[in-house]
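Bench notes, afternoon.
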Amino acid sequence: MGLFSRILALSHKPEGLLHKAETLLKQEPETTASFFEQFARDYGYSRFCLLTPEGSHYTVAGSAGIRPDSLDTACSTRDFWDGTLFSDDTDWLCIRGEKLVNYLQLFCPEDRNDIRQLIIRRVSNPSLHLDYIFLLPQEGEYDFYQPAEMETSLERINEYLTA
């Protein structure tokens, strides 16, 4: 039996792998999107992005308020993040001014024009199977940047990702 025949056979079985994947794909984006949109509203974030590792890259796993074009450009290599972020994942990084230029490539031109600072936190907790990068682009020069409050927001994301 050829590969195409096997795929067709699986696609007609309600318990087949392809059916399960289709079911998850239909449900997951809606559930994920609604969580992240509600999360942004609850914490007053006009936009944010969550990147998770896939192979040698980080890709967008969730976001709110980010233009679709930026979701494509936010895909970045592990090497980029390993070279720009600190090894201690307990610190927040607030990037402004000339240092911001290296990170603007992660956003589409329309978003780049608005960003005045970027707050970043890398979260890595192998025991909880957590590994992600939280990006919080901000329009104002000194917008919301309160690490204690932001820690609380990350705890909520951690709960969501480990549920």
